[in-house]
């Protein structure tokens, strides 16, 4: 296993008496692509800014490569940031923006020329050196911001919702490009986003946050398949979340019906949340299923149809490549391993 | 119809802005009888020392205003936002007081038996001659025009994106480096407007020099005033001096604009 | 440490800005004409001030000129702004350059250029400068401020607004009054207020264009030229208090409006 490059230990931050981070701890491994994911106000940007040094935590410590850097100002840290709205210097052109950090560190002109040139090539902006930054498209500004940070060869690159201002197509392209850059440069990326799809496609590790707490840390596959609670399940993808009763190990009761499942260790007759992904549900004839309902709506989504099936106590979201007839009654089935049981959220 | 609605103003502008300026030019190159001459413009050279003094004193006052205003604005911009407008209002409030009364206030303070000399007297010093000196004129300029430096500077500095400053720190600049490399260059348009707004009234004033400078520190403004309403009535010479003053200001502003490639100026 | 230094600096600048004014105010209550020693407390100078015919009549002149000039400038300027905002690029640039002249030019040049115009033409008609020339001069230096306050409103306005009103059944004129005018109204009002205060306060241009008509600043100027009179101190105190009152009221209203909007949204 590779070593930890950044460690946050019991970090607490509050603004104007309002807690923004509640004693969170997080280890970030070297050369990893880590995404902090959560809704706005969950503390993900605050976490990033704490690593960058723009926020000094009220308590707890930040370690970098094993050394405590909690009180080190940003300009002495070996990390660089790609800011949300890029924060390019409006009085400098593309070359000068990218060269800024190198000039501060008093590199020779030749070295600056060479490294900025390399960066321009990396981000596909050769020939734009003299261009003023306000005459670049959003995507180009984004690339300058990335180059400006990467040219300093930081061990960790912090990215604060860098793709938020781009349109969908450009965003998809940049996602792939960023991932490729990270693998080629072999440095750690800490990436903040509220877009779960982005988090799942790009990351090695996803950190799901809510209200200043870390809810779950894991690989995208783990987080998707084994969400720790109903919030994570709901945030990470569309889900059917139902209240259920764990009768005993391997048996759960949903909507008054009992189903076999694969989970154990919750105890007997304990209230739980049950999550079933819409794509794991199969529609059958109503005679062949425990549960049945009326098809409320059918929407074509390109690859699949999205349907809402109303049973007597729940509206089920179902994804299927075959469309059912709206208004007809259908049966709902799912396999035991597609039933995800989790403790009720406090 | 939409086009016609601005016609009254266009006529007004032509008659009361453009024509008077043409008349200044016309008077500058004619004699009292209306004959063409370059004598007036040539005569302006007699007053070269007054021009030099005006430019010199106005330049000093402008620099002092900049030196006082810049740190003040940096402090203002860092104050809690809810207080900021109130503090700014308090700073700007004296500007709303009549210009003559503000200058008069200094007249009474600086006099030989004024309050400042009395305070010196308590320590056995003075009295110093402060009124009717060049220093008093510069002081009067700084006092009256300081708000014109503060306002445009404030408008520019308060709008500097906080994340740009974060970015400079992120790329290795300490506070001093950030100031020199980011804040200062970004405030250039504000500095330029401030300089214009202080320098132009300072170089053309005749009240400050008359009230605080006595008779011995004449400025261009005094010279012009004397040709129109003073003892040495000569509107042709006065027009010539005004014309030269406008050209000088235009030249200095063009020179300053070389430093400021930004197109949009920040007035008010 | 750094905070203390900032506060000290702020305090020093405030002292510089306010000390002269407060000295004026304090000595307006002095029984003697001394400018350095308080010998006793009196309201005499205020009583004298209110019996000074010249000051009262020039105050009256100032107010009349300011009201007429700022109203005239507002109508002229608002109409001009409507026209200018619809102009093509080149004529617009030319007109705006002309509009900027009175703002950029030294006041004294504006003053003497108008004086030359008035003297030149009126001498031929055996007329003298006075109230009318004063008002014309004030309108001339006021209009640019109205225009500069109204034009940005047009730029901020949604260009489809006017069309939306027409789409909903307004003809051109009523669309203007129902939709465009309310949008530019804040600019018109602030332009009017700016004109009004500039007119109240103007000395230099008035000095050259007023003939024998006296406005308050001109009277103040002639008072400062003569021997020291604590009446000026009394006048300064009153003007200062009026300024403070106006700014405080203005601030309170602004804050209340902000809060109201905060509630509605």
Q: How many helical elements of chain C?
A: 11
Mean pLDDT of chain C: 88
Q: How far is the first residue's CA from the last residue's CA of chain C?
A: 42 Å
**Into which percentage range does the β-strand content of chain A fall?**
35-45%
Structural category of chain C:
mainly alpha
What radius of gyration of chain C results from the CA coordinates?
23 Å
What name goes with the CATH superfamily of the largest domain in chain A? P-loop containing nucleotide triphosphate hydrolases
CATH topology of the largest domain in chain C: MetI-like fold
Please tell me the CATH architecture of the largest domain in chain A by its name: 3-Layer(aba) Sandwich
* CATH H-level superfamily of the largest domain in chain C: MetI-like
The strand count of chain A comes to 20
Summarize the topology.
The complex is a heterotrimer of chains A (346), B (268) and C (265).
Chain A: E1 4-15, E2 18-29, E3 33-37, H1 44-52, E4 59-64, E5 67-68, E6 79-82, H2 94-104, H3 109-122, H4 138-150, E7 156-160, H5 168-185, E8 188-193, H6 196-202, E9 205-210, E10 213-218, H7 220-225, H8 230-236, E11 240-248, E12 251-254, E13 257-260, E14 270-276, E15 282-284, E16 291-300, E17 305-310, E18 315-320, E19 329-333, E20 340-343
Parallel strand pairs in A: 3-8, 3-9, 6-7, 7-8
Antiparallel strand pairs in A: 1-2, 1-4, 4-5, 9-10, 11-12, 11-14, 12-13, 14-20, 15-19, 16-17, 16-19, 17-18
Helix pairs in contact in A: 2-3, 2-4, 3-4
Chain B: H1 7-28, H2 39-44, H3 48-78, H4 81-92, H5 99-110, H6 115-122, H7 134-157, H8 162-170, H9 175-186, H10 188-204, H11 207-213, H12 220-228, H13 235-257
Chain C: H1 2-27, H2 44-50, H3 53-85, H4 89-104, H5 107-124, H6 131-156, H7 160-167, H8 172-201, H9 204-209, H10 216-225, H11 230-264
Helix pairs in contact in C: 1-11, 2-11, 3-6, 3-8, 3-10, 4-6, 6-8, 7-8
């Amino acid at each position: 296993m590779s070593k930890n490059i950044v460690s946050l230990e019991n970090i607490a931050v509050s603004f104007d008496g309002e807690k923004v981070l509640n004693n969170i701890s997080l280890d970030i491994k070297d050369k990893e692509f880590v995404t902090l994911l959560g809704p706005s106000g969950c503390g993900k940007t605050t976490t990033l800014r704490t690593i960058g040094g723009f926020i000094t935590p009220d308590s707890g410590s930040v370690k970098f490569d094993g050394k405590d850097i909690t009180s080190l100002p940003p300009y002495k840290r070996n990390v660089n940031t790609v800011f949300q709205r890029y924060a390019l210097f409006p009085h400098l052109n593309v070359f000068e923006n990218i060269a800024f950090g190198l000039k501060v560190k008093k590199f020779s002109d030749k070295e600056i020329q060479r490294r900025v040139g390399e960066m321009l090539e990396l981000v596909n902006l050769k020939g734009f050196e003299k261009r003023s930054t306000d005459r670049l498209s959003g995507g180009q500004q984004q690339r300058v911001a990335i180059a400006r940070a990467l040219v300093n060869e930081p061990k960790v690159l912090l990215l604060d919702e860098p793709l938020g201002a781009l349109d969908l197509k450009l965003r998809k392209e940049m996602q792939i490009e960023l991932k490729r850059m990270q693998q080629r440069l072999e440095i750690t990326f800490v990436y903040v986003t509220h877009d779960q799809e982005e988090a799942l496609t790009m990351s090695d590790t996803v950190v799901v946050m809510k209200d200043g707490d870390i809810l779950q840390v894991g690989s995208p596959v783990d987080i998707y398949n084994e969400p720790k609670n109903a919030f994570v399940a709901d945030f990470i993808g569309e889900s059917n979340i139902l209240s259920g009763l764990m009768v005993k190990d391997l048996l759960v009761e949903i909507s008054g019906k009992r189903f076999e499942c694969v989970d154990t260790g919750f105890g007997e007759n304990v209230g739980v949340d049950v999550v079933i992904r819409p794509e794991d549900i199969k529609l059958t004839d109503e005679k062949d299923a425990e549960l049945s309902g009326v098809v409320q709506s059918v929407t074509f989504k390109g690859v699949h149809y999205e349907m809402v099936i109303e049973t007597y106590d729940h509206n089920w979201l179902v994804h299927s490549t075959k469309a059912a007839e709206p208004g007809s009654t259908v049966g709902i089935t799912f396999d035991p391993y597609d039933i995800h049981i989790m403790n009720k959220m406090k | 119809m939409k086009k016609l609605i601005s016609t009254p103003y266009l006529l007004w502008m032509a008659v009361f802005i453009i024509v008077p300026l043409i008349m200044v030019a016309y008077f500058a190159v004619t004699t009292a009888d209306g004959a063409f001459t370059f004598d007036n413009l040539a005569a302006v050279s007699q007053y070269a020392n007054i021009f030099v003094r005006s430019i010199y004193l106005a330049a000093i006052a402008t620099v002092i205003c900049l030196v006082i205003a810049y740190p003040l604005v940096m402090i203002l911009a860092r104050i809690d936002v809810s207080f900021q407008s109130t503090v700014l209002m308090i700073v700007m409030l004296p500007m709303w007081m009549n210009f003559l009364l503000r200058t008069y206030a200094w007249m009474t303070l600086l006099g030989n038996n004024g309050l400042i000399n009395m305070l010196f007297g308590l320590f056995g010093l003075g009295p110093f001659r402060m009124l009717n000196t060049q220093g008093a004129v510069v002081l009067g300029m700084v006092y009256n025009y300081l708000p014109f430096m503060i306002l445009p500077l404030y408008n520019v500095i308060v709008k500097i994106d906080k994340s740009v400053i974060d970015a400079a720190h992120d790329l290795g600049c300490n506070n001093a480096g950030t100031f020199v490399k980011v804040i200062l260059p970004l405030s250039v348009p504000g500095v330029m407007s401030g300089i214009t707004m202080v320098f132009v009234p300072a170089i053309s004033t005749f009240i400050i020099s008359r009230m605080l400078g006595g008779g011995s520190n004449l400025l261009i403004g005094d010279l012009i005033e004397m040709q129109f309403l003073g003892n040495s009535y000569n509107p042709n010479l006065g027009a010539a001096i005004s014309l030269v003053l406008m050209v000088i200001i235009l030249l200095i502003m063009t020179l300053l604009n070389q430093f400021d490639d930004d197109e949009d100026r920040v007035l008010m | 440490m750094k905070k203390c230094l900032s506060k000290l600096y702020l305090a020093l600048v405030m002292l510089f800005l306010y000390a002269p004014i407060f000295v004026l105010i304090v000595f307006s209550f002095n029984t003697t004409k001394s400018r350095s020693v308080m010998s006793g407390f009196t309201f005499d100078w205020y009583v004298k001030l209110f019996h000074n015919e010249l000051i009262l009549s020039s105050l009256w002149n100032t107010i009349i000129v300011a009201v007429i000039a700022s109203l005239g400038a507002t109508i002229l300027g608002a109409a001009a702004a409507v026209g200018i905002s619809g102009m093509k690029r080149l004529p617009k640039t030319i007109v705006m350059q002309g509009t900027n002249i009175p703002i950029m030019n030294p006041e004294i040049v504006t003053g003497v250029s108008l004086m030359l115009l008035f003297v030149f033409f009126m001498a031929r008609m055996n007329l003298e400068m006075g109230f009318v020339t004063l008002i014309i001069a004030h309108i001339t230096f006021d209009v640019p401020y109205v225009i500069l306050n109204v034009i940005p409103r047009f730029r901020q306005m949604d260009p489809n607004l006017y069309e939306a009103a027409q789409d909903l059944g307004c003809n051109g004129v009523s669309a203007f009054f129902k939709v465009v005018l309310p949008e530019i109204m804040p600019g018109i009002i602030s332009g009017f207020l700016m004109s009004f205060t500039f007119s109240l306060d103007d000395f230099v241009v008035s000095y050259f264009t007023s003939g024998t008509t006296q406005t308050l600043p001109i009277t103040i100027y002639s008072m400062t030229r003569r021997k020291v009179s604590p009446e000026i101190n009394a006048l300064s105190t009153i003007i200062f208090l009026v300024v403070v009152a106006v700014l405080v009221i203005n601030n309170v209203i602004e804050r209340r409006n902000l809060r109201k909007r905060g509630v509605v949204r």
